[in-house]
Amino acid sequence: MISKRFSKDEIIAQFHDGQTIMTGGFAYHGCPELLLDCVLESGAKHLTNIALDVSASKLMLSGCFDKMIIAHAGAEKENLEAVSSGKFEVEYCPMGTLAERIRAGGVGIGGILVKVGLGTVAEKGKEKIEFNGETYILESALTADIALVKATKADYFGNLTYNGTNLNSNPIIAQAAEKTIVQVDEIVGLGEMAPEECTTPGIFVDMILDTSL
User: What digits encode the pLDDT tens for the residues 34-82?
Assistant: First the structure.
């Protein structure tokens, strides 16, 4: 039987120094906390994190990151101090633009044209393109070595469904990485998930954390 269920130890073994990791969630909702623990236990360092915000703060505060690409640093004093400490590089990107850069990476598009940031510091160092008489900033697509996703339900093949705030960034990062690892609330057998429930097809999913293994 096809199965993408893996033990915690098998997932810990996937993390290595220097990787780029996308993490799902916003304001800690839809954040794959168990998978973040796997990263910590792996001891991997010098990571780049791509995320909507600092929901992966346990990794950030542990010193795992050399760089973060985020839209929002949150409001918690500890997180704000870490982001402004200069101990790692921070690239801010407007949230809608960041989401579309990730989506572009997931579908194989090299970049997107946006007007957001024109005439501000956001355009510094970026190529500007004239198209149909309008000026745009070219924002490059974003991909990662590993995406850490939080979903509500998965079957053995990795088809995923999401409820509520799990829908924030998890579906788009699931498509934008070389390897997608998922934490779910429930794992069901093949054929037990209705086709209309599936938001992320299993073809995008490589590993599902199964804490019973």
Answer: 999 999 999 999 999 999 999 999 999 999 999 999 999 988 999 999 9
The domain ranges of the chain are 5-110+141-209
Average pLDDT (90-94) is 94
Q: Using a cut of 0.70, tell me whether the model's pTM lies above it.
A: yes
Is 2 within 8 Å of 82 (Cβ atoms)?
Answer: no
Contact 53, 28 (CB under 8 A): no
Token digits of residue 136: 């745009």
Which fold, 5-110+141-209?
Glutaconate Coenzyme A-transferase (3.40.1080)
* Number of neighbouring beta carbons within 10 Å of residue 203: 11
- Check: CB of residue 49 under 8 Å from CB of residue 66: no
Please give the sequence-ordered ranges of beta strands (E in DSSP) within 24-102, or none if there are none. Answer: 47-50, 65-70, 89-92
The full length of the chain comes to 213
Sign of torsion over alpha carbons 75, 80, 82, 83: positive
DSSP at 69: E
Q: Cα–Cα distance between 37 and 8 in angstroms, integer?
A: 10
3-state secondary structure of 11: helix
To which residue do tokens 């500007």 refer? 128
Rounded Cα distance, 49 and 89, in Å: 10
pLDDT tens for each residue of 131-173:
999 999 999 999 999 999 999 999 999 999 999 989 999 999 9
